[in-house]
Predict the structure.
Amino acid sequence: MLLTLPLRTVSELNAHTHWRARQKRAASQRGVVELALRAALGRVELPVLVTMTRVAPRALDAGDNLASSQKHVRDAIAKVLGVDDRDPRVTWRTAQRKGAPKAYAVEIEIVPRPELCPACGQALAR
């Protein structure tokens, strides 16, 4: 399942804004993601691989800033899936790609993840 949402995400580590503005941005992002995912998702069988791709004119550094920009999106996805975002049945990936000037979005892709055999590392049949 691939879903594209018109969200502008920023690095929460470098956003030097008033706490109310950060709180408003977080609530807005969580609300948009929750509504869209609840409408688009049916029943999801865990484990899954979730890829969140930030689309923006300029890239963030691929380390902590990219991850922090997707924090509220990740929290909302975990809530819709009915798990904590630390649940080992969900593998999280962040990515980014260049978009058109003044065009911002977040692409969310949720796909089944094969379970791996703990002894040999091979994918188990579902």
About this structure: The longest strand covers residues 48-56.
